[in-house]
Write a structure and sequence with these properties.
mainly alpha, 20% helix
Amino acid sequence: MLARLLGFLRKAINARKSFPRPASEPAGGILGLLILLCAVAPAGKLSAQESPHGRIRFECSSCHTPESWKMPKDAPFMHQSTGFTLTGQHTNLRCVNCHEGLKFKNRSSDCLSCHSNIHKSELGTNCLRCHTTQSWRVSDMVQKHQVTRFPLLGRHAVADCQVCHANAGRKQFTGTPTDCYACHREDFNRSASPNHSAAGFSTNCTQCHLESAMHWGGGFQHDRTQFPLTGAHRSIACIDCHKDQVFKSTSVQCIACHQNDYSSTRNPNHSSAHIATTCQTCHTTTVWRPSTFSHATTAFQLVGAHTTVACNQCHVNNVFSGLPHAGCWDCHATTFNGAINPNHVAGQFNHDCLQCHTQSAWKPATFNHATTKFALTGAHAATQCARCHTSGNYQLQYTDCYVCHSTKFAQPANPNHVLGNFNHDCAPCHTTTVWSPSTFTHARTAFQLVGAHQAVACNQCHVNNVFKGLPHAGCWDCHATAFNGTVNPSHVAGQFNHDCLQCHTQSAWRPASFNHATTKFALTGAHTTLQCTQCHVNGNYALSYQNCYQCHSVDFARPSNPNHVAQQLPTDCVMCHSTSAWTPNTMNHDAAYFRIYSGKHRGRWTQCSQCHTTPGNLASFSCTTACHRSAHNQGQDCYGCHRNE
């Protein structure tokens, strides 16, 4: 039905075009109605025969408007939605230029579908490799050429295309050779200095010429050959080395050109000394003289005074190879044998002179005694060699100080080193600076001296110069007399421990500083002011304390309210008393049990036995025996219910 209506409207539109539009007819009229119907018609309802574009997937409103069927320039249709964005000159074309008959379906996006291939497909079908949509003319051909097999450099970048591409006028560019000789055959054959053909040069021009050079003769680099030119070689004419235009097989050895320089050198004479012909070892390409030879490249590096010695003083008769370099002896044997202080020969000195001498000068000698087994320190450093090395004996074997200091070892009397059988190793007590005072410290022994021990003379402990084997198990070894003589308290009767440090210090024997807290009975309160004998009767210090009753039995029997004995109270007095004083007692009935000092019971009791009727059992008490009569006949323990009374 809709198709018929649209057909009718088309006929009406064609007929209406023959008549002028009345003024009363609204803008757009029948044509606008047709467009509107097309716009609102469901997509895909028109058949390919009914649509002028064939079957398409876009709605009519994408390109047409109700005002005009003709597609305006500002139509909302976006061509990029088709997969082919319009750029450059494509934006100025009419649709019919590409879409003949306004048929849009199956239109190819390849350039060749619209543009003829003037290159005969030699360069492929992608025109965008060289051209743009803005202009068909290629303005950056040099840059485009850089991605080909032959990038344009130097003179090539400014050359006309037809110079290399002979068929460029016919738009044919393939098949052009990329080797230099193909274009530069005449340049190669015309070259006379040097003559490339006669010299048999390679036709690979890049071996000598730079592609970036602006002319044929420029850009040659000798560095590309096996012999890079450096120094003075850069300013030498080619024919100086390449005689008779011979360039191939020219030797790169120095001697090939510098034979005369080699033979004429006299200091040293290279020929007679058979010096190697590798001139670069001693000379540079800048100048032949002065030589840059460095003795450091040999087995014997020159330092100190050796650097100023003339070559012929060592290299006698131009002998440069085979010289011995095992040690200084090879050249300095005469000096070695002539030394007398000390006599090197008699002392059987090592031929390695560097142990005592430097290469700056033979004297003064700088022998470092620390390289031996006996480093010199303190007063030893200022001692003359002959004092120790008597009779030129430099092969001494030192085991201890006694070898040289036996006389000093026998002199001391406090202590007497000989009688005390002291070790011959003096270092533990003496230094190399001075023999006395001694640096011995008792801290190195098994008995460190502290307090009053520091002021005691050695012989008070080390009787008869006995220093070895002294017992150090405890204080008793030296203080037995003081221990036995003490009477307050008597240490012997009290069977005191022989470890005096429990009560005494090393500063003084008196006063004693025994800490009773180290026993099982720490002293507190009034106990701290008691005399020891008040508790330790008859010198008995091995007391075993069970409770307070041992000392306070009299105090325990004295009270009558309550009577501790009659009530059979516990003998552990700390329940009610403290160590500060026996009275007042610290028992608080209100806090521990129930209130008898306050509340209704206050002032109503006088004896503990009024309630505690069972001696020896304070946990048992009766409320009804003396004070309360029970109306319940349920026993005498009123406290079970009347806790707050």
